[in-house]
Design brief:
The chain is α/β, with parallel strands linked by helices. About 40% of the residues lie in helices and about 25% in strands. It has eleven helices and seven strands.
């Protein structure tokens, strides 16, 4: 993401809905918790409040700066999955809120998470069910309605995102008691604020919007306003998967 402040106003709010079930899936409160792809720290904040010793990792130094400033009690480390700079068995639990869907190599990442967890350690991961993500799909629909040609970036995770496939990868990586559940909610947000948060945050899927000349950008925005209007009161439908397992 290009702008941590915009991410905080937009995506961080969206992802905050799954923080409680994500941490609940880890079972009894872990002492040493790894927050994977911490962003601006919504999982870190919740885990610290539960008394955990949190190590927050992200590939973005700008995101880590935000977490370090907001949560001085957490340890922050820069890392890009599937490589983590920790010894074997360093953590009691690892939580990744919408990070596994961004990694280039899912099996290698799961193997690395298995390595850094102690025996009996818990893992919980979330990812979006892409075909039910109205909150973000509305931007692609606006581009199409505005007749702006664009090729969405490849999503390697698509090949493994179905619950049975991902559960099989967890099992193959050595995890037991594996389960995957589905979470649905409404993202209640002012559509104008959502446009600003998502577009200014950037990222591979949305930076195509900011690259448009002013007249095209205005056309995309008008299409977005029309498409988002029906969700202004009840919120955008959102769906995510939550997987868990034990080392």
């Amino acid at each position: 993401m290009r702008d941590p402040a915009a991410y905080d106003r937009g995506f961080a709010r969206l992802t905050s809905y799954t923080v409680e079930p994500l941490l609940d899936a880890l079972g009894p409160r872990p002492r040493r918790l790894l927050d994977l792809g911490c962003g601006t720290g919504v999982v870190t904040a919740a885990a610290l409040a539960l008394g955990a010793e949190v190590t927050a990792v992200d590939s973005s130094p700008a995101m880590l700066d935000v977490v370090a400033r907001r949560h001085p009690g957490a340890t922050v480390r820069q890392a890009t999955l599937p490589v983590l700079p920790f010894d074997d068995g360093s953590f009691d639990a690892a939580a990744g809120n919408f990070v596994i869907n961004h990694v280039a190599d899912t099996p290698a990442t799961l193997a690395e998470l298995h390595r850094v967890l102690r025996p009996g350690g818990a893992l919980a991961l979330t990812w979006w069910k892409s075909e039910e993500m109205t909150a973000t799909n509305v931007f692609a629909e606006a581009l199409a309605a505005a007749r702006v040609p664009h090729e969405p970036p490849a999503r390697p995770f698509t090949a493994v995102e179905r619950p049975e496939r991902f559960a099989g990868l967890l099992t193959a990586a050595g995890f037991g008691e594996v389960g995957v559940r589905t979470l649905r909610w409404r993202h209640r947000v002012d559509p104008a604020a959502w446009w600003t948060g998502v577009v200014e945050a950037g990222g591979p899927r949305f930076e195509v919007i900011t690259r448009q000349p002013p007249e095209t950008l205005a056309r995309v925005r008008a299409c977005y306003d029309r498409l988002a209007a029906p969700y202004a009161a009840a919120g955008f439908p959102v769906c995510a998967r939550l997987a868990h397992g034990l080392r």
